[in-house]
Design a protein that fits this description.
339 residues; 4% helix; glycosidase; globular; mainly beta; Tachylectin-2, Chain A; 3 helices; GH43_arabinanases; 48% strand; Glyco_hydro_beta-prop_sf
C-alpha cells in the first residue's frame, strides 16, 4: 500500500481501542467505533484499522453496522468493540443503547441518592463472523447479552480455567451511583447467558479514588464510575482486570467534586473471576483510560488506551508483569506519535 494511504495513531480517531494480533496474517487489527469522517461509511457500528508494525495503519474498513441488522433493539452507541476468536469463529462485543426503550427506575442507593436520569436499555450485543474483517451478524437482535433490565456497557469475554465462557461488564453508575463490575456465564456457543450476574467489585472499593479530596469534605461522594474491563492471566496464575474510572481530586467553588479519567487495574489472587479482588493504584492518569493488554508478534506485552477522553487518540505503552503486579516500562511515543 502506498505510504500516502497509511495513517498513524495521532491521525486516527480512536475511542475504546481493542487490538487483535492475528498470527495467520501477522497483522494487528485495531477495532473502534465507526467514524464516518474516516471510514466514509455512515451509521452506528465498528471499524477496524490494520498494521504490520503498530506504527503505520491502513485506512479503516467497517465490519459491523447496526442499520444492516434485522429488527435490532437499538441503533445508537457502537461503543467499546472487541473481537474474540472462539470455536473457529470471531465474536464481536459492542455496546448499544436505545433511549426510547425505558427500563424500571431502581430504588435510592446506599447513600439515599435517588436515580436522577431516565433509565433506558443499554448493553453489549454479541455478533459473529467467519472473518476478522466481518461482516458481523448479531446473534440475538431482540436484546443485549447481559440482563436487559440493567444499564450496562463494555462487555468483554473471559474464559475460566474449566473452559466456561463469561461476559464481564460494567453496571452503569447512572443506574447504581456506585458503579460495579459484574460477570455472567455464557452458553458454550456464546449465544445466551446462564444463571444470574455475579458482583465482582464496586468502583468505591478503589479507596485511592477520593484520597486527594481535602480533609473535612465527605469521602463518599457519588458517582463512582466503572468502565472498560479486560481480563488477563498473570504468570503466577492470578487474574488481572484492567478497568477505568474517574479519580476525584478537584473541588469546585460550589463544593462539587470532579476529577480525571484514569487507567487502573485489580487482581484476583485466587485466579477466579469471582475474586476476591484487590484494587491497585492507577497505571496512567492524564485523562487516559479504557485500555487493553496484548502481546506483539515478538512477545512484548503492550497496553493501548485512549487519551484524552474527548477527541481521543491511541497511546501505546510497553508493560511488564512481575507475578501479579503490572507496571509501565515505557511509553512508546515512537509508535503513537507523542503528545
Amino acid at each position: 500500500m502506498a505510504e500516502s494511504e497509511l495513517m498513524r495513531l495521532p491521525d486516527m480517531p480512536l475511542h475504546d481501542p481493542f487490538v487483535v494480533a492475528d498470527p495467520k496474517t501477522r497483522a494487528y487489527h485495531l477495532y473502534t467505533s465507526n467514524d464516518p469522517s474516516v471510514s466514509g461509511v455512515d451509521g452506528t457500528g465498528t471499524m477496524v484499522y490494520r498494521s504490520e508494525g503498530l506504527r503505520d495503519w491502513t485506512r479503516p474498513v467497517v465490519v459491523f453496522l447496526a442499520a444492516e441488522q434485522q429488527e435490532l433493539w437499538a441503533a445508537d452507541g457502537g461503543w467499546a468493540p472487541e473481537v474474540h476468536e472462539w470455536g473457529g469463529r470471531y465474536y464481536l462485543f459492542t455496546t448499544l443503547h436505545n433511549q426510547d426503550r425505558p427500563i424500571p427506575v431502581p430504588p435510592p442507593n446506599q447513600w439515599g441518592v435517588p436515580f436522577q436520569i431516565p433509565a433506558h436499555m443499554r448493553g453489549t450485543i454479541t455478533a459473529v463472523s467467519d472473518s476478522l474483517l466481518g461482516p458481523f451478524t448479531v446473534v440475538d437482535p431482540s436484546r443485549p447479552t447481559p440482563p436487559e433490565n440493567l444499564m450496562t456497557l463494555d462487555g468483554t469475554l473471559h474464559v475460566d480455567p474449566s473452559g466456561q465462557p463469561w461476559m464481564v461488564y460494567a453496571h452503569e453508575w447512572l443506574q447504581t451511583i456506585d458503579g460495579t463490575m459484574e460477570a455472567i456465564r455464557l452458553a458454550p456457543d456464546l449465544t445466551r447467558t446462564i444463571g444470574e450476574p455475579v458482583l465482582l467489585f464496586k468502583a468505591s472499593d478503589a479507596s485511592w479514588i477520593t484520597e486527594q479530596i481535602p480533609a473535612g469534605l465527605p469521602n463518599q461522594l457519588p458517582p463512582y464510575v466503572t468502565d472498560g474491563p479486560q481480563l488477563h492471566r498473570t504468570p503466577d496464575g492470578s487474574l488481572l482486570m484492567l478497568w477505568s474510572t474517574y479519580e476525584k481530586n478537584v473541588v469546585g467553588r460550589d463544593g462539587s467534586i470532579s476529577g480525571g479519567y484514569v487507567q487502573t487495574y485489580a487482581t484476583s489472587r485466587s485466579g477466579s473471576i469471582t475474586g476476591p479482588w484487590r484494587q491497585h493504584r492507577p497505571l496512567v492518569r492524564d485523562d487516559s483510560g479504557h485500555g487493553m493488554l496484548f502481546h506483539t508478534f515478538d512477545d512484548r506485552l503492550m497496553m493501548i488506551l485512549h487519551r484524552p477522553f474527548e477527541n481521543a487518540r491511541g497511546k501505546l505503552y510497553e508493560m511488564e508483569l512481575s507475578g501479579h503486579e503490572l507496571r509501565v516500562l515505557r511509553r512508546r511515543a515512537d509508535l503513537d506519535g507523542g503528545g
